[in-house]
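Batch manifest, entry 17 of 40.
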Amino acid sequence: MADNILDSITEQYHSLTKSGKKLADYVFSHTAETQYLSITSLAENCDVSEATITRFCRGLGLSGYNAFKLALAQADRTTDLGDSNNSAEPISSEDSISTICAKVHAANLLSLNESYALYDEESMSKAISILSRSRRVYCFGQEGSMIMAMEA
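Output type: structure tokens
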């Protein structure tokens, strides 16, 4: 399991059910707030069942919802104490066009640097070998990822 519950959710996101993704999206958008919600309140806010939340927590390797809230609190504390240069600055309605462009640029650089930090040459070579031997490769994307799928 990842060091941080948010990392664990991110790693498993592609395999979540539709309801699980709704829950994950809510948690990502409201991390600090979620740790204080009851399971009933969270279910109502996400429009999912309490059973979905329980399955979600167990799927993350946690014993239940209380363990999930504790893990969220620890993740939120880690984020708050972390290096402020490691997170993109949010855009506000008061920002000028120039400031917005600078923030978007910084966020994209951060994303690229984080992706590059995960680069593993051996895994990349294996993936290239598999793709090279394939007769057909289908690329799918959604929203911004669709552009990359179309390019591929």
